Amino acid sequence: ISQKVDAIIVNPVDTAAARKITDEATKAGIPVVYVNREPDDKTLPKGVAVVVSDELEAGHLQMQYLADKMNGKGSIVILLGDLANNATTNRTKGVKDILAKYPGIKIEQEQTGTWLRDKGMNLVNDWLTQGREFNAVVANNDEMAIGAAMALKQAGMAKGKVLVAGVDGTPDGLHAVKAGDLSVSVFQDAKGQAEGAVDVAVKMAKKQPYEAKRVIPYRLITPENVDTFK
After folding, report:
1. Angle at which helices 142-154 and 171-179 pack, to 10 degrees?
2. Domain ranges, ordered by start, for the chain
3. How far apart are the first and last CA of the chain?
């Protein structure tokens, strides 16, 4: 802001704290584009835009795929991201929206792995040690899903005995789907988000018409189509 730039693109780690950035930038008359994560405060003033993917859709796609594979019955565990992050809230809500249609699928456990592979591994390891039984692991991101798959492997479980689902379609996530460690993931188009954010920021800086909210769609990644993702 002090450099008087033409526009600012922000990926907010703490979505609750984005209000301060919004206030300072708008006061200085500098356009702001939030990318990847939407601020908690949805009342965006003039000169502020968001380029995001609908996190609810990620949860819907992920859980619908699992519900079909599980024939609508069984139990799942959920690995949550950082609880202060609205991606966690919305991806999980998306999962539970689908579960509401399948009374035969129960949630055995849900805890936060704070987006981390080792935390995901430790939680699943603990649940297995406690003798908890579940048919699928639903993780808010690929990293925790990969950790879950590692714990299942260490416990001597055959690939696919317990379904594992992630979100993001990171390079490691894509590799894990290809290897059969993850049953499914959901592709978050980071390139599409970045290009969209730059496009909107340039339009705002040039005082051209712009979309206050641009939504980049999610896509399901399965063993059948994984090779089409880069």
Report:
1. 40
2. 8-53+189-217, 55-187
3. 35
CATH 3.40.50.2300 corresponds to the domain 55-187: yes
Classify domain 8-53+189-217 at the CATH class level: alpha beta
pLDDT tens for 107-126 read 999 999 999 999 999 999 99
Q: Please work out, in degrees rounded to the nearest 5, the angle formed at the alpha carbon of residue 122 by the alpha carbons of 121 and 127.
A: 100
Question: Sorting pLDDT into bands at 50, 70 and 90, what band is 17?
Answer: confident
Residue 109 bridge partners (DSSP)? 77
Contact present, 187 and 230 (Cβ < 8 Å): no
pLDDT at 92 over 80: yes
Position 40 scores a pLDDT of 87
